[in-house]
Amino acid sequence: MTSKAGCNKIISMVLYSKPSCNYLCAMLIKSAKYITSSPSFELCPPPDKPEYAFIGRSNVGKSSLINMLVNQKNLAKTSGTPGKTQLLNHFEVTSSTPTPGVKGDGAPVKWYLVDLPGYGYAKRSLSDRRRWEQMIENYFRKRQNLINVFVLIDARHAPQKNDLEFINQLDAWQIPFVLVFTKADKEKPGVVQRNHKAFLDKMRETWQFLPQSFITSSEKKQGRDEVLDFISQRNTDALSGEEA
Ligand SMILES: Nc1nc2c(ncn2[C@@H]2O[C@H](COP(=O)(O)OP(=O)(O)OP(=O)(O)O)[C@@H](O)[C@H]2O)c(=O)[nH]1
Ligand SMILES: [Mg+2]
């Protein structure tokens, strides 16, 4: 496995748009299974597969997005109460991506999805918050097979300070990330577009390049193909030994 790329401001500089070919490289999910929940980076499974982590404010929809991506209702535990996910939860996915003009589904590829506990949960004690910070920092900075972090942002709201602070922290640690705007079904498309643009405009004040971003709804399966296509491309890069 190659380690993570050097600078997210370089690798995530292009705003997301569909590939110019008509073919959105439709990744097929063959299976997805729960592996383990770890209280620390040291106890995570061996770093032998490309890994994608999902983080964002408590209740933003991380676990729901993972379930939507792998087409299972209850693989990752969801809850209406913030703070449900507390540990580093690894899921192993087997997927394949057909090649246009080539018969069959393509070779199977195994990778990890990681459901992380969220930030910004007001009722958490100071010591719990410290423990979360330590666990997350260690995981992000040391996990060798981490290819990309999906930072989830609630599409219903104007830019939030803690989301912006969190992505600045990721940048300081040089962790590659993209943005996923969630719960798009809960607002009118115009409001979602406005909040999406406002977030990117806010970033533009201090960032030279903007990260790629996706608009999703786990309820309506919106954005699923685009996110899976991104993962498929990153898997190809990682497994062919290229830097992402
Ligand atoms: N309508 C709608 N509801 C959503 C969507 N995504 C998540 N939800 C709801 O939002 C709530 C929180 O979802 P989770 O997936 O548990 O959120 P989380 O970020 O994993 O939460 P924590 O683990 O507690 O940090 C649940 O009640 C979900 O059903 C979405 O795209 N649309
Ligand atoms: Mg969760």
Overview of this protein structure:
This protein has helices at residues 8-11, 62-70, 126-142, 161-172, 189-204, 224-239; strands at residues 28-38, 51-56, 88-96, 109-115, 146-154, 177-182, 213-215. The protein is α/β, with parallel strands linked by helices. It has one domain: P-loop containing nucleotide triphosphate hydrolases (Rossmann fold), CATH 3.40.50. It has a seven-stranded mixed β-sheet, with helices on both faces. Strand 5 (146-154), helix 4 and strand 6 (177-182) form a beta-alpha-beta unit. Mean pLDDT is 88; it is low at 1-23. Guanosine-5'-triphosphate is lined by residues 58-64, 78-80, 82-85, 118, 182-183, 185-186, 217-219.
Question: What value does the average pLDDT take?
Answer: 88
CATH-level-4 superfamily name:
P-loop containing nucleotide triphosphate hydrolases
Q: What percentage of residues falls in helices of 4 or more residues?
A: 25-40%
For this structure, the CATH topology is Rossmann fold
* CATH architecture descriptor name: 3-Layer(aba) Sandwich
For the biggest β-sheet, the strand order reads: 1-3-4-2-5-6-7
User: Strand portion, in percent?
Assistant: 15-25%
Low-confidence stretches: 1-23
Largest sheet: 7 strands, mixed
- What is the count of distinct domains? 1
Text of the CATH class: Alpha Beta
Give the number of DSSP strands: 7
- Number of helices in the DSSP assignment: 6
The gross shape turns out to be: globular
Bound molecules: guanosine-5'-triphosphate, magnesium ion
- Given the helix and strand composition, which structural class is it? alpha/beta
Rg, nearest Å: 17 Å
